[in-house]
Each structure stands twice: as C-alpha cells, then as structure tokens.
User: What shape does this take?
Amino acid sequence: MLKEVVKLVKPGVFVPTFEAIKLNEKVIVKPEYLSICAADVRYYLGQRPKKVLKKKLPLALIHEAVGRVVYDPLGCIKKGTYCVLLPGGNDVTDEISNYREHAFFRSSSADGFCQEVMSMDREEIILIPDNEDPIPFVFTELISVCCHALRRAKSLYEIYRRDNNKINIGVWGDGILGYLMSLVISKDELCGELTVIGKHEERMSLISCAQHKYSTYDMYNNLSVDIAFECVGGEGAVNAINDAIEHLKPCGILVLMGVSEHGQLINTRRVLEKGLTIIGSSRSRKIDFESAFDLIKKLTNKGPLQKILGRLELVENIQDLINSFEKHIKMQEKEVIYFNI
Amino acid sequence: MNYAVLLAGGTGTRLKSSKIPKQFLELGGISVLESVVDKFLVCDKIDKIVIVVNEVWLDHAKSLLVSDKYNNVIICAGGATRQESLYNGLKLIRDKYGISSDDKIVSHDIARPFITLKIIEDNIKALDNSRVADTVIPATDTIVKSENNLFITEIPKRSQMYQGQTPQSFYLSDFIDLYEKLDKEYLDSLTDAARMFVENGYQVALVKGSEFNIKITTDYDFMIAKYLVGIK
Assistant: This one.
C-alpha cells in the first residue's frame, strides 16, 4: 500500500511524500500521539551543521510516539490497541549498539514517526493496556533515556561504592529532561537525597520529588553528590557541568545528557583531581523502555506527567505541523500532537 | 458492519501507454489493486471488503489476491455501468450477509491509490450525521459550464465549487432501496452514487479529500503517480 510520509526537506520546509509498503508478518501501526523533542527542533531550525543536514535530510521527524495498531496479520493484537513505538529499531543487541556510528534511530538515521502508517516488528512496540489513557505514554521514550542514564550511572557507581548508604544525586537543569530525570531518580529505591539545581522559578516549583532545590544564584557550598546528571544542554551546559564537577564527591560520576552543538570548556583539572568519571548518555534500550513503561503505569492518575503536558495539538496537514513546531519553540512546553494526516 | 466496495471496473481505454488497465499496473513495486485493498485491509474501521472487477479481468484480479491475508476479501464481476457495478457489489453483500439498518458502505475507485486512512475514517464518521457523504476538495481552477460545447453557458462562483473524489459513503439499505425503484435509463446516465442521492432528495455531506488522492486515468496521471511514489 502507499503511505504518506511527511519529511523535512530543508529547515522549515515539510513535504508530503509517498512510499510503498507490503503487508507481511509485521504489525501495521498508525502513529497517533507524537511529541516534539529538542533534537527535532534542531533539524527544523537548521541548527545542525550543514554537513549533517545535507546527509540526513529529507527526513521524517519525531521519535517520541504512541501508535494505534490497525492491523496484525497474525491476529494476536486487537485492532485499536495503543502502543508505545520504539525508535531504535530491532537491532539493539548489546549495551553499546545504540551508540555505534550508524546505529538505527528514527528521526536521525531513519525516518521518524511523522507517517500515516508504519510497518513495525513486534519487538518495536510495547502494548498499552486498554484501561490506560495512551497520551501520558508519549513520554516513554524520554523517560527511558532517563532510566538508561540512571542504570548506567548506578552500575558504574558500584565499582567505587565505599559504604551501603543510599546514593546522593544532583540534577542540573529544570527543563523537561531535568524534571523527568528527577522523577525517575525519586522512584529508585537505591537513591537517597535528590537535589535539583535550576534557573527558572516556575519550572523549579513543578519539581516536587526533590529533597533540596537550589537556584543557580543560591549558595549551596555544602552540596556534595555521588552522581550528577547534567540536563541543561545548549549554551548553559558549560556552567552546569563545571558546577556539577565542583559538587561531586571524589570518584563521583557525571552524566552528560543535554545536547550542545558547540564544544564546551570544562574544568578538566578538577575532573582529574577528583578522579571523576564522565558518561555521555542520550539513548535507551528496550529494557529501559520497559522500566519507563512500568513507571508510567504506576503513577497515580499520571499526575507528575499531567503537570508538564502542554495542550493537545491537532495536526491534519503540513501547516498544522509547522504551527506545532513554532509553538513548541516559543512555549518550551511538552506538547503532544494528535497526528492524523 | 462497515463494508468497503472497491470499484475496479475500468478497462484502461484512456491509458494509451499500456494495454493493461491502470488498476493492475505497478506503483512502487505493488499493483495499484493490491495497494488500495491493503489500505482498506489495515483500516480498523472496515469489517469487510468487496472488489468489483470487469469480468474480463476477474481471474487476473483473483490471481493477484491469493495471499491468506485476502481470505476475507470477495471479488465479483462488475456491470455495464459504474452504477451497475456498484449495485452488483452491494447485491452480493445483501445476498451473502443480509442487510442491517446500520450497514455502512464506503465505495472507492481502485484507481485512487493515494487514499489515506484519515479520509476513509472521516467518511465513516460523516455517516453519523448524514445518510450520504462525498469526498471533495475545493476547486482551484475556475469551472466553466457549456451546454453546447461551443459557448459558455455559465461560470459558477469558484468558492462554491468542489472537485469530487472518492470514497463516496452511504447506508447499504438506502442505496438498494433507491436503486431498485429508479428506472434503468436514468441510472445509466449517472456517473456516480452521490449524484443519485442528491437528485433524489438526500442531503450529502462533504468530506475533505486530498490533492494527492488523484485518480489515475490517463498517461499523465500515471506519470504523476509514479513521480509521487518515487520522490525522495
């Protein structure tokens, strides 16, 4: 059948294209609830290096999505069942596969979810129970990235662990990523005190799961953490990274999660003095998706996610999609798109 | 039940470059027929599919749809006109499954392979508020009417003009009741189902189609279709 795929052909310009797909043993899914991520915005605004844009475009954007199963040739999945769509394909075989140079990832090395329908492996979807509202599950991918980062940091921390005390953690950043990272940490039994350092009063007030919250303008000299998560990205990342380095305990772990297009000058002297380990973490595996999925399922009334959900935007054509991107850039909210093109 | 009745009765006389009717030509490595059937097959709002094919091409159509996934798809022979072909498909549904007052029909030209799930679903939804629905797009060209093919009789306001596409959707019982009481000469003059309903007192709701939902009739159309599928 022919399916419509909406591709970004150059910054700011989306074009509908058509591709033929054959029905085989795979499940046919209609991506329905989508969420725009900072990575999508960088493509949309042309903020990636020219060489990268030339190589990757045309590209269908968006890698955070919930879809509706419209057809299962094996008849195992009920039509209309909602599911989380995994952007990493079905080739995730080990911990580093996500980070290989040509790793499959939608909205980066492969077309994202701005498509009318998609043919997906059963391993690429996680079914959402009928009694659940599918919309909060659009956060699964981003939460899975947080679960992945925490899992990696914790396993490394075990090497340097000096006692059986709970792990003290700091999160730098009060945006959506910082918010969700804090949420994930707060639900982990091994994690002790959580401190969040941010800049925006209103956003900080939404983070209710942290024991301590500091504005970047506050003095918090006594803060000392075992693991620090940098969730700032962009131009603010360098200050956050250097601040985190100062507040990490010796042999502590710094996890970088925010994307910056430009090189950052970090205080390597202090990194060496303290024997810190720095991890870059931006992807996730199916195991992390499953952790994220369980976490969302257990949230009462999905309250923590409802707090950060923007308005549901109806996208029925190219202009609607452009409007959603423009609004996302202005509002900095986690908008959810109802994609029905 | 929601039925799709897919019309593939054409014999391809306006497609000069091929002796094969357009519905059997390949687009993106799949025949147009399979492409459209697959789209209705994956529409979770459609319960059964009936395909109406010109008698000459009946076996050919069947040979394309041999896979198990087409087990619930029924193929039947068309009639001399479009309306008769549609009626044949609907009669088959009545004879095989009976008629229920809420049976809905979504009839679509196989020659429109760029149909989207949204358009199909919008057609079905439209029948909640209207007995009949027709898929259209606003006319972009000025429409000129001439009754003698020599001089303009009228130029209607473009803002009120639309181009008809398919699907056309309606309740099964309405079509059968109306069709069976109208005379043959009148029915033969009709080019589509919506007109039959409009001229017999039904309100027909408009469903928004798409500029891409083109009908492959001529060589030009087929070239455009190939371009759209090949575009990167």
User: Anything to note?
Assistant: The helical segments of chain B are 32-41, 58-64, 82-97, 117-126, 172-181, 184-189, 193-198, 219-230. Chain B touches chain A through 24 residues (CB under 8 Å).
